[in-house]
């Protein structure tokens, strides 16, 4: 797998009318593997990163660098302009979980976000955001995605069994018993 790295000296400013899908964990859990979850609408880093880093700058200090694993990102720009500054983007294939985004700030530190795939069902995405921001946060990003996939499969199997049950005469409309008169 090769990563495509583009140098874009000037990218037009894009305004998104849709709200940012981001959940951040409390900072009172030392040693947690994740600091939150981000659910981008696409795999276009140049379009998605400006809104994310602009939202995080006031909370975590100016984000200066972002790293990703190129496995799931088709194009990785070297730089992304964000509200008056530039965020440098790098990648690590073997060293970084493919479902994690690493954000760096010179002044404050480092944060790790679970990246929820854009096509994820909203119910599963909500579960992932809760799991990534819960008090324990002891699972890796890939582990959470595997658990979510297992949950999706179990839910679909349960729905299929219920549909078969209904088609074979189970769960029909329940008639209420007439009230007895005294």
How does the SSE layout of this entry go?
Elements (H helix, E strand, L loop, with lengths): L4 E2 L15 E3 L11 E3 L6 H16 L4 E4 L7 E2 L1 E4 L2 E7 L8 E6 L3 E7 L6 H12 L7 H27 L15
Parallel strand pairs: 1-5, 3-9, 4-7
Antiparallel strand pairs: 2-3, 4-8, 6-7, 8-9
Helix pairs in contact: 2-3
Provide an overview of this structure.
The protein has 182 residues and is an alpha/beta fold. The protein has helices spanning 45-60, 122-133, 141-167; strands at residues 5-6, 22-24, 36-38, 65-68, 76-77, 79-82, 85-91, 100-105, 109-115. The protein has one domain. The chain has 3 helices and 9 strands. The strands form 2 sheets. It has a 7-stranded mixed β-sheet with strand order 2-3-9-8-4-7-6. It has a two-stranded parallel ribbon with strand order 1-5. Helix 2 runs antiparallel to helix 3. Residues 162-182 are annotated as: Disordered. InterPro entries: DUF5994 (IPR046036). It holds the Pfam family DUF5994. Residues 162-171 have a biased composition (Basic and acidic residues).
Put simply, the count of helices is 3
Largest sheet: 7 strands, mixed
Low-confidence stretches: 1-16
With strands numbered from the N-terminus, the spatial order across the biggest sheet is 2-3-9-8-4-7-6
- How much strand content do the residues show? 15-25%
Region (Disordered): 162-182
Biased composition (Basic and acidic residues): 162-171
Pfam families: DUF5994
InterPro entries: DUF5994
């Amino acid at each position: 797998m090769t990563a495509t790295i583009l140098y874009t000296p000037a990218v037009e400013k894009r305004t998104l009318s849709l709200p940012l899908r981001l959940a951040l964990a409390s900072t009172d859990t030392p040693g947690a593997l994740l600091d939150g979850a981000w659910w981008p609408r696409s795999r276009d880093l140049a379009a998605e990163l400006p809104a994310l880093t602009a939202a995080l700058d006031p909370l975590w200090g100016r984000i200066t660098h972002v790293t990703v694993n190129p496995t799931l990102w088709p194009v990785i720009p070297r730089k992304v302009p964000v509200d008056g500054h530039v965020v440098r983007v790098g990648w690590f294939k073997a060293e970084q979980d493919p479902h994690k985004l690493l954000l760096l700030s010179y002044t404050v530190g480092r944060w790790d976000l679970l990246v929820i795939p854009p096509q994820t069902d909203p119910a599963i995405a909500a579960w992932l955001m809760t799991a990534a921001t819960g008090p324990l946060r002891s699972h890796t990003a890939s582990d959470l995605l595997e658990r979510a996939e297992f949950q999706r499969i179990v839910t679909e199997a349960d729905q299929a069994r219920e549909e078969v049950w209904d088609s074979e005469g189970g769960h029909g409309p329940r008639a209420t018993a007439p009230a007895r008169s005294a």
